[in-house]
Amino acid sequence: MATPMHRLIARRQAEANKQHVRCQKCLEFGHWTYECTGKRKYLHRPSRTAELKKALKEKESRLLLQQRSFFSPLCLSALEKLM
Question: Does 66 reside within a domain?
Answer without folding.
Answer: yes
